[in-house]
Sequence to fold (154 residues):
Amino acid sequence: MHAVRLIVPVSFAVSVAVLAGCGGTTEPRSLAGTSWQLTTIESMNDAQGITPAPPGVGYTVSFGADGTAAFQLDCNRGSGTYEADPTGDGTSGSLTFGPIAATLMGCPGPPEQQAVTDSLTAALPHVRGYVFKGQQLHMSLMADGGIVSWEPRT
Fold:
């Protein structure tokens, strides 16, 4: 009788797990065709910490379906290529950018704004992975160098 009590709950739990897996399927996410607005640049160096994107300043990335990426870097624009290799469910994967060609105009604004531009342009060549968490996109830098976080561009 004791063995039956163990088998029934285990069988029920396995059935629930199987049925839950057969429920609505989640569409894999892709970077292609998406556009993002910078929210923060987080350095693993405690002295630098987290740098928020200045409000109202354009720091964006748009991923083309053809493997091209377009950037807005304050008053400058850039373009290059990207290569993404998603995991099976598409929630994360490897990500690298090829060389990024950008204009080099001197943008008006406070020094803190230029510091964000410099940090972002220095970080992009070191991106090695990405993960979607909720509505945000987080790009990880090589050697645990930091995280660049983005929200959907409206």
Notes: Helices lie at 2-22, 111-123. The radius of gyration is 21 Å. The chain has one domain: 35-152.
